[in-house]
Amino acid sequence: MIAAKQLAFLVAAVAIVLPLDAQSPPPPIIDMHLHALEANAQGPPPMGMCPGEIAGFPAMEPGRPWPDTFMERFKKPPCARPIWSPTTARELMDRTFAVMKRRNVYGVTSGSLTDQWKQASPERIIPSLAFELGATDAMSPEAVRDALKSGRYRAFGEVANQYQGFDPSDPAFDPYIALAEELDTPISIHVGTGPPGAPYLGFPKYRARLHSPLTIEEALMKHPKLRVSLMHAGWPMLDDLLAVMWTHPQVYVDVGIISYVLPRSGFHDYLRRIVEAGFGKRVMFGSDQMVWPEALETAIQSIEQAAFLTPGQKRDIFYNNAARFLRLTEAEIASHAGR
């Protein structure tokens, strides 16, 4: 008979040598806002990020172009331990996948390299069709219909019309909204923060007023069956967001980039107000991870460390709300949980 101490040693030894895939995965997370991009998508790499540490950007200096000040922040990040972006697309993908595997993340993914990422990790990448009304390469409604009906994409978004000066209720966007409703395809629309000083960084039609979630109301009234998520939770227009979520119960939000670019206290204040107003069942996790893979880890921690959230509320934000919004099957949910 094996002595108790010997048995305990054997159990510990087996746990050490078992491969990671043989162990139970952590509870799954759905990232509703992930990007598959080239390494230079946000500027010449490497780019340094100070997640959750620095409030805002420096003031614009008289006589100095804003892009110079903006880029200097990323080349000389003012923090002790910045996150540096990879210098190649392959490293960007591999480092992102490493975080996704460790944290059991499944990403609704858009961007120029989505097909490549899907091929490399078909079980973790949920392809979504990126779109920007007014862009030179914007797809026609017919092309979007064909793409969504092909089965290649599970969702429609990121829809980044705000960068071209269009709000979600603009008549020019109505054919696309109508398609999403007709095909019952979930759509995620950028309503909220862009880069500081966006109109001076190559987006001259970007306007602060388009941060308001109120801009989607007419589209919702015309297309009431729309499954829609507002990215970045409409930051910083909190009162507008709460009014829209109260008035239109079909509206969900993802927390997006505010989960790691705002100081942690500022993000928690914003999220707390949404949850305490009673809308915790319609808040979804989203990282807006672009070229900083470890920012995904920081975004996850921003929810985990929210002391005002119960364990059940955290699970809803991390997974349950998105599973409902995406209408995942029981088989998909079981697979994500490792059952």
Concise structural overview:
The chain has 13 helices and ten strands.
How would you explain this protein's 3D organization?
This protein is an alpha/beta fold. The chain has one domain: Metal-dependent hydrolases (TIM Barrel, Alpha-Beta Barrel), CATH 3.20.20.140. Helix content is 40%, strand content 13%. It has 13 helices and ten strands. It has helices at 4-17, 66-75, 89-103, 114-120, 141-149, 174-182, 217-222, 238-247, 258-261, 264-279, 293-304, 311-326, 330-336; strands at 29-35, 48-49, 83-84, 105-110, 125-131, 155-159, 187-190, 228-231, 251-254, 283-284. It has an eight-stranded parallel beta sheet, sandwiched between helices. A two-stranded antiparallel ribbon has the order 2-3. Strand 6, helix 6 (174-182) and strand 7 form a beta-alpha-beta unit. Helix 3 runs parallel beside helix 11 and helix 8 (238-247) packs parallel to helix 10 (264-279). The chain is globular, with a radius of gyration of 21 Å. The two termini are 34 Å apart.
Give the topology, please:
Blueprint lengths: L3 H14 L11 E7 L12 E2 L16 H10 L7 E2 L4 H15 L1 E6 L3 H7 L4 E7 L9 H9 L5 E5 L14 H9 L4 E4 L26 H6 L5 E4 L6 H10 L3 E4 L3 H4 L2 H16 L3 E2 L8 H12 L6 H16 L3 H7 L3
Parallel strand pairs: 1-4, 4-5, 5-6, 6-7, 7-8, 8-9, 9-10
Antiparallel strand pairs: 2-3
Helix pairs in contact: 3-11, 8-10
